[in-house]
């Protein structure tokens, strides 16, 4: 996951994925994996800037269409 960042000398990365349901709310697995990736990034001295889950604005209870771990204080 961090190979490109290491090879390019990046100091930070932003991850994203989508949910087929359209609801961008993070699952328990999304939260667990994000925290694991944050720890891996820390070990590599790379900043995990954000992890964004992209969804459908119409399926999102908040009507924004995405979930940002950074904006929600989860990073």
UniProtKB/TrEMBL annotation:
Name of this chain's protein: MPN domain-containing protein
GO biological process: one example: proteolysis
Domain MPN residue range list: 1-75
PROSITE patterns in the cross-refs: MPN, UPF0758
Annotated GO MF terms: metal ion binding; metallopeptidase activity
UniProt keyword terms in alphabetical order: Hydrolase, Metal-binding, Metalloprotease, Protease, Zinc
Top-level taxon of the source organism: Bacteria
Transmembrane spans: none
Signal peptide start and end residues: none
């Amino acid at each position: 996951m961090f190979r490109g960042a290491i090879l390019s000398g990046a100091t930070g990365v932003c991850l994203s994925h989508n949910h087929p349901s359209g609801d961008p709310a993070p699952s328990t697995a999304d939260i667990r994996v994000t925290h694991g990736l944050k720890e891996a990034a820390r070990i590599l001295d790379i900043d995990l800037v954000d992890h964004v889950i992209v969804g459908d604005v119409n399926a999102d209870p908040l009507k924004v269409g995405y979930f940002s771990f950074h904006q929600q204080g989860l990073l």
